[in-house]
Each structure stands twice: as structure tokens, then as C-alpha cells.
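Changelog note: in this version the structure field was regenerated for every chain. One regenerated record is shown below for reference.
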Amino acid sequence: MKKLLYIFPALIGLMLMVSCQPGRDESGDLLFGLDPNLPGSGGGSGGSGTTKYLHKLTFPDGMGGNYTVTYNYALGKLTNVRSSDNSVSYDLTYDNNNISKIKVVQDDGGTITTTNFDISYTNGKFTEAKGTGVEDSGNLFNNTITASYAAGKVSKIVSKMQGIDISDPTVTFDMFTMQNDITYSGNNISVWKSTMSMPPMPPITLPPIVITANFSDYDAYKNPFNTLPEVFNIVSSVFGTDTSAVTAFSANNYKKVSVEGQTVTYTYTYDADGYPTKAVASEDAGTLTFEYTK
């Protein structure tokens, strides 16, 4: 998590909400899959039209070093994702061109958590991601992610977390619900509203936590994360918090983001094919670098 906050101080509130989930890894990496023939793989208008695969994403770790996420492929499909500090690994299983299962192993230096997600589709569209997380301490939890659509775009993502009684796995208890509401301007996100609600815990009742992010000043070039399959953009928006967690549904790259009165702007460098190779943030928030493979 500390790595993310160094890059995106304007999104600190949003990231902290998601980090409350059990089994969250320190770096908050996400899982992505890639197949340019799958739905939701549209990009921006700039560049040559060449399709590339995101291979490496590097950004400061907040401690004077760098943190890298590497995406590995076979036959045009993402097969696994690895982090440079070994804090997280992802392994994907496919049913033809659809990702059917995701195994995530997280190591925060004290607890190792393994979560297995089964992905469901209806008429080719994502319906549900249902997973059970197991910590090496024996703690168990369920995570169910669903999505709603409007005008062909993802408009709402809901994640519900339940704890599981170790002594009696048939007994579950609600932990929290996170709802993300997405508003678009054309093909790009303009507002991302995230609301986390927790059940009453007498004598304490906590009000919902609401964070709103406003995105603007988009460029006309390809958003590398938008080329990823829609199902992974959905899961990543609530399961983890990488730099693309709240941007992957946009066709282009935002140059300004404001959250709760804090604003950060970005200056991009692009390659000849219209893909960003570098994003420099204001407010000393760091630099992201992107590497691709064809």
C-alpha cells in the first residue's frame, strides 16, 4: 500500500478504504488479463493502431527504490503476474478465451493469503467473481463482486465481504460492502464515487465512508489498461489498488485527478504507436514507466 500512496497522494482516501480488506497485500497490486479480441479492449485514437501488451509497470516504492509489476504471456494470453518484491503473485486459468479462475497469493511479510476466484458470465458479459480467501493463520473470508451496465459501459461495481466462522464454516458474518458508481463523459470516466458501508456493531454504528474522484483533461492517446479484458478491470477496481484501479474503463489517459480537495496533474511521454511510456505526476508524486511487448 505504501508504494501506491507515494504515487497517487490525491487518491489516498480511496486507497485506504480498499486496504481495509483482509488479506490485502502491502503493495496493493492488481490482477489483469489480456486478449485483444475480448470485449472491452478498445483504446484511444492516437498512434499507429498497433496493438501492444503491457509487460512492465514501474513506479517508486516510497522508500527510495522502485517497484515493478511484470505481466507474462503465452499464446497472446496473460498467464501470470509477478511483483518485484514477491509480495503477490497471480495465476490465471482459461476456458477458451474467457478467464475462468484466478488464484491470488499475497504475502505481506506476516500473513500469507490465498484467494481463489471463480468467474461467471451471462451472454458473454461478466456476471460475478466469487472467491474464498484463506490466511495461513486459518482465518477465512468470502468476497463476491458483481457489476451493472448502462449503455454498454460498466456503471456500478459492488464487492461484498463476509467472514467465515472457523469452527463452523456454515456460519458467516457480514464485514462490509463497497460500491463503486461510475459516470462517463464520452468514452472516459468523469466521476468515480466509492462508498464503503459496514454493518452496525452495537453500541457503535459507523456511517458510510464516501470518496469521490473527478477525472478530467484527457489526452487523445491509448490507455494501456483499457486494452485489458473488462472482467479484470472490474475485479481490480475492488480487489486491489494498482495505479489503474480507477482508470481502466477510460479509453484515454487522464491528465488531472481531484479527490477531496487534492489535485494532481500528469505529463505523459508517448511512443510512436501512441502508448504512454512515462507519466510524471505533479506535487512530487513520482513517475510511472511503462514497457510493452507485441
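Spot check on this record: The chain has a mean pLDDT of 79. Residues 31 and 236 are 6 Å apart (CA to CA).
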